[in-house]
Amino acid sequence: MRTRDAVARDYYGILGVDREASDDEIKRAYRKLARRFHPDVNPDPEAQEKFKDINAAYEVLSDDRKRQIVDLGGDPLAPGGGAGGPGGPGAGPFAGFQDIMDAFFGGAAGGARGPRPRTRPGADAILRLELDLQETAFGVEAPINVDTAVLCTTCSGAGTAAGTHLATCETCGGRGEVQSVQRTFLGQVVSARPCTVCQGYGTTIPHPCPTCAGDGRVRTRRSLTVKIPAGVEDGMRIRLAQQGEVGPGGGTPGDLYVEIHERPHDVYSRKGDDLHCRVTVPMTAAALGTRLTIKTLDSEETVDVKAGTQPGSTLRLRARGVPHLRGTGRGDLYVHLDVRTPTKLDADQERMLRDFAKTRGEEVAELTKQGGFFSRMRDAFNGHA
């Protein structure tokens, strides 16, 4: 039987790859050689030794730390140079079989993962809350009802009936998984799957809690009060820590998110922290000037409409909008003026209006003179009337 040299082995040469080879190139070279020299495929006695060297080379070059030792001139599998690998002393012909499974199937085939924990964190929950503009602007303490899973008070989350305990699964022996063995041209392939008896937990509940049926939690409706800060906007979410679903087995509850939906207001529309409304004033009031009383969200304000106010004019009331969510102060209130022109006039009103137009030189006949109708209209819009 061939013996190994005491000097560091050329792991790159064993796999037939360059020192700059990528991980994928190393894996492909290993797979190719493993198929060729596996004892089940190649019964030659030399193949077994070659197979050990191939496994050792793959173990080293697929591990960044061990590969760095090789690049520095060392041998991580030499005595005192690191943990023994598939090619080390005492290694059997299938000592590197796990590496073969990793290379061919991309994972630790047959590797024990351990049982799943019965206690797991709970899921987050979301609740829609509709509020009026007044409530989103100035804040409110709103009562809410939440349908979520809560801790079972009968078993305190254990899932077992009083005076009983969990039992180790007899099928998987507490591992949470069962293994099966298949023979292939590469040898025995060991695969693992979750135990169907204990669902991967490794334990069973011989006597489940009569209240929660072993889940450790029950569904119920809870009443909470959520404090809505002043200035929240439509679509914002408020987080209530650990007020969501209790996890299976009495696990840590998730969070509850309250999503704000602001109802449309009859008068005001909102853009950020500013409020907007529209007020219609008669043509005569816009021409002569007037005073308006505006009812804001929390007060009444009197504003002056100057004589000669034009359609589309806007009045601004500072700090009469929505309070800022972060910081101090408030947004503004914008009053948009619509000037109303009368649509029906009686004979006396029409006569007076025509007389007024004559005094202003605004009769239609006059507008057609001195440059024409469109010229006068241009002057009128430019403020030359």
Automatic annotation (TrEMBL):
Keyword Cytoplasm tagged: yes
CDD domains: DnaJ, DnaJ_C, DnaJ_zf
Cofactor needs: Zn(2+)
KW Transmembrane helix (keyword) present: no
Domain CR-type residues, every copy: 139-221
Domain (J) ranges: 10-74
Keywords (A to Z) from UniProt: Chaperone, Cytoplasm, DNA replication, Metal-binding, Repeat, Stress response, Zinc, Zinc-finger
Source species, domain of life: Bacteria
Positions with a binding annotation for Zn(2+) 2: C169, C172, C195, C198
Span of zinc fingers (CR-type): 139-221
Any one of the GO CC terms: cytoplasm
Main location: cytoplasm
Binding site for Zn(2+) 1: C152, C155, C209, C212
Function: Participates actively in the response to hyperosmotic and heat shock by preventing the aggregation of stress-denatured proteins and by disaggregating proteins, also in an autonomous, DnaK-independent fashion. Unfolded proteins bind initially to DnaJ; upon interaction with the DnaJ-bound protein, DnaK hydrolyzes its bound ATP, resulting in the formation of a stable complex. GrpE releases ADP from DnaK; ATP binding to DnaK triggers the release of the substrate protein, thus completing the reaction cycle.
Family stated for the protein in its record: Belongs to the DnaJ family.
Subunit structure: Homodimer.
HAMAP family documented for this protein: DnaJ
The protein, known as: Chaperone protein DnaJ
Gene designation per UniProt: dnaJ
